[in-house]
Each structure stands twice: as structure tokens, then as C-alpha cells.
Amino acid sequence: MASFTIPLASCSDKAANQFPNLFPLSTFVTDPMPSAVLERNNVRVFGSGEQVMMLCNGFGCSQHIWSRMTAALAMRYRLVLFDYVGSGGSDLSAYTPERYSSLGGYVQDVVDICQALNLRDVVLVGHSVGASIAMLATIAAPVHFTRLIALAASPYFLNEDDYYGGFSKEDVEQLLGLMKIDHDSWANLFANLLLGAENDALLSKELAQHFCNADSGVAQQFAHVTFLSDCRADMARVPVPTLLVQCSQDIAAPSEVGDFLLEEIPRATLVTLSTTGHCPHLSAPLDTLRAMETFLAA
């Protein structure tokens, strides 16, 4: 296990242009039945190169949250992007509270997509709770994955006597309570909380818009699942080499969480970026890309 720090880049981060779908889904799908999976999760495959990279976004966001990184990544990888059921362009009618009452339903969606596209040796990238979903997917179906990149990961967001996750139970209860009363106000408050005061206010507005665009009922249940799920005991079972990308000041994934993951995951490397907040793919996409490429080239 290794740990090192990457300084902020001096050049500015620029939003990426949207790439066309260079790889029609029919390129991968030989059985017509999996098409329902791909439609359900609004799967897009594009980019170049032989290596497949799949991106799992965090809570309340759609696949478009990756837009600052996809142009650069698509020059070297075949990218698989998707939306969780209830967000983005997914099929909302496919949502059932029973299936998505735990992270297991979201993990199954990731595995289903890999099976539908007949994917092997995938580099799986996840952000926040999406990183937990990605970790659990590598455990559930290791045949599909070769490496894992976890951005601002946290296996458990709550504080306990011997563990600091970032939020008290009272904090979470207040956030969930506001979410039920006024979804838009909650979205702005939570986005500002996650990005922090040091980042551009426009980034907070962009993140808040993602939260606002999500179905409020689905988002409320996903929020409960996100904040109350405890995956700590599963971390020792992650079977693939893993890059942990943490931010220097992150209220939702503090340094103590990064240290915990580095200790628990068997083949983990920790990179701490100089940027602040919980969304390095928004606040420092160039630094995040550099950390990813260094890990994948090793």
C-alpha cells in the first residue's frame, strides 16, 4: 500500500465536449434480451482504444457529471456511461423501492450492464457512493473487472466511537428532513456543503442542478441508502488493485476515511489531491485524470 500527494495543476480545467457514440451498442450485444438492461439504465458506449472503462456516478447525479473528463478519457478508452434508475435518462418505471432499498440493487445494475455488453477486464471508476457500489460490484462479479478507481470514496458516512465518517446521525437526520420538506433548498444546501467555500460557486450551482433534476421520491430513498449503508466489513474483500483519490478537505470523505480504506483494501494506493470538496471530477478534473493515468500505467 502506498500514499502520496499530487499538487494542483497550474493550468485551468475546461469542460469537455460531448463525444458521439462511436461504438453502437449492437457492437457488443449479440442477444436481443439484454437491450432492456441498456435502455433501463440509459447506457452509452463511446470512445476509442481496446480498454473498457465504466463510470459510476455518485448520489443524485446522472452520467453527465463526468463531462469534464470524458473527452480526454475517450481518446484512450471505450467508455461505458449509464444512469441509475430514477436519474438522468433512465427508465423511471423500472424503479421499485424493494430493489433499491439497499446498495445491492445498484450493484446488480452494474453487473447486469457488464453482462449485457459481455464486458471483461473493465477499469471501474466510481465517485462517492458510486465508489462503494463499484467496490461491491468487483466483489460480486470479479470476472468483469481488472482495476478500480474510487473518487472521494466512503464505506460509511456516519461517525462512531472508533470511526470518523464525517457526519453525525443528527446531521444526516436534518439533511433528510429538509429533503422531504423542500427538495430545491436541500439541493442547494447540500451542493454547497459538498463543494465547500473554496471552490467556484458555479460548481455548486451545477451540482445542485443535478440534484434538482433527480426524481425527488427516488432521491429520498437513495439518500437514506447512501447515508445509512455500512460497507466497512466488505472492504477487505475487494479483489482488484484499487486507486483511492481523496481531496485534501472533504466533509463527506475526510482523511480518516482514506486512511481506513488504505488499511482495509488489500491492494490499495491512496492519492490525496490538493483540491478541496467532495467532487474532484468537478473541481480538479485534470489532476484527477493525471492520478488515474499514473495508476493505470503502473
Short synopsis of the structure:
This protein is α/β, with parallel strands linked by helices and 298 residues long.
SSE order and pairing:
Elements (H helix, E strand, L loop, with lengths): L1 E5 L28 H6 L3 E4 L4 E5 L10 H8 L3 E4 L21 H14 L5 E6 L1 H12 L4 E7 L17 H13 L1 H13 L5 H13 L2 H13 L13 E8 L5 H10 L3 E9 L3 H4 L1 H13 L1
Parallel strand pairs: 1-8, 3-4, 3-5, 5-6, 6-7, 7-8
Antiparallel strand pairs: 2-4
Give a short account of the largest sheet: 8 strands, mixed
Which geometry do the CA atoms define?
Answer: globular
Count, helices: 11
* Structural class designation: alpha/beta
Instruction: Estimate the mean pLDDT confidence.
Output: 87
- The rounded Rg comes to 18 Å
Uncertain parts: 1-32
The amount of helix comes to 25-40%
Order of helices and strands: EHEEHEHEHEHHHHEHEHH
Please indicate the percent range of residues in DSSP E strands (runs of 2 or more): 15-25%
Number of strands: 8
Gap from first CA to last CA: 14 Å
Order of strands, main sheet, comes to 1-8-7-6-5-3-4-2
